[in-house]
């Protein structure tokens, strides 16, 4: 059984001092968290190496990642970070395709597919973000939109490396300060469609090894009900986890639910 992935991306937040303070609190509060839960954090580029080193030095089993990367190994791409640089700073994961990257930086499905391919080529775990807009939800085409995004992102991914992929469904209408979280039933319906798509692309065995995370206004009040759905394998948390105490609170809630569960 795959561990439950629970993580957060800090976006363009936290100085190095703030990042290390978060890491220190995480180290203090991680005691007793079951290995059935796999935490991860995705800091800004400037903090990744230091946060990774700090967590590893303190033997904290928390993965780290970066929020973007280029698909080329090197070259005249001013301001970009290569897969080799990501690996060099100790990160395991790379967040790709976030709606903010698509909207503000013009990232296309084709560009994201190249980045996914590059991540897998360098043994990084791509965390592929997909999501529908409020208008697409109102039009009733949410599933069609995210399935198209999923297929496009995976179009260059070798089948033998697909098990290293992570998918995060983040409806655009659910993220941000004014977002409204999807109900567990809404999220499950989309996740089921995504799982069926993965079955078609890679077969059932590989499909079941690919974690499907939900992200979008996840908080202590809804985290357990979301995880109760069969096709929700983890949570990609926003502002509720930007403070270490909040992140650890959600981790403990999930940990306690697993402790009392008969399974």
From TrEMBL:
| Main subcellular location of this protein, as a coarse class | cytoplasm
As its record notes, the protein acts as a catalyst of: D-glyceraldehyde 3-phosphate = dihydroxyacetone phosphate
HAMAP family registered for this protein in UniProt = TIM_B
Gene3D superfamilies named among the record's database cross-references: Aldolase class I
Which family is this protein grouped under?
Answer: Belongs to the triosephosphate isomerase family.
Question: Which GO MF terms does the UniProt record name?
Answer: triose-phosphate isomerase activity
Function of the protein:
Involved in the gluconeogenesis. Catalyzes stereospecifically the conversion of dihydroxyacetone phosphate (DHAP) to D-glyceraldehyde-3-phosphate (G3P).
Keywords assigned by UniProt, alphabetized: Cytoplasm, Gluconeogenesis, Glycolysis, Isomerase
Q: What class of enzyme is it?
A: isomerase
GO CC annotations, alphabetized:
cytosol
Compartments annotated for it: namely:
Cytoplasm
Species of origin reads Brenneria corticis
Q: Which domain of life is it from?
A: Bacteria
**Record GO biological process:** gluconeogenesis; glyceraldehyde-3-phosphate biosynthetic process; glycerol catabolic process; glycolytic process
Q: Which positions are annotated as binding substrate?
A: 176, 217
Known pathway: Carbohydrate metabolism; erythritol degradation; Carbohydrate degradation; glycolysis; D-glyceraldehyde 3-phosphate from glycerone phosphate: step 1/1; Carbohydrate biosynthesis; gluconeogenesis
Q: Which gene encodes it?
A: tpiA
Spell out the NCBIfam families in the cross-references. Answer: PRK00042.2-1, tim
Active-site residues, Swiss-Prot/TrEMBL: 98 (electrophile), 170 (proton acceptor)
Protein known as? Triosephosphate isomerase
Q: Name one Pfam family in it.
A: TIM
EC nos: 5.3.1.1
InterPro entries named in the record: Aldolase_TIM, TIM_sf, TrioseP_Isoase_bac/euk, Triosephosphate_isomerase, Triosephosphate_isomerase_AS
The subunit structure is: Homodimer.
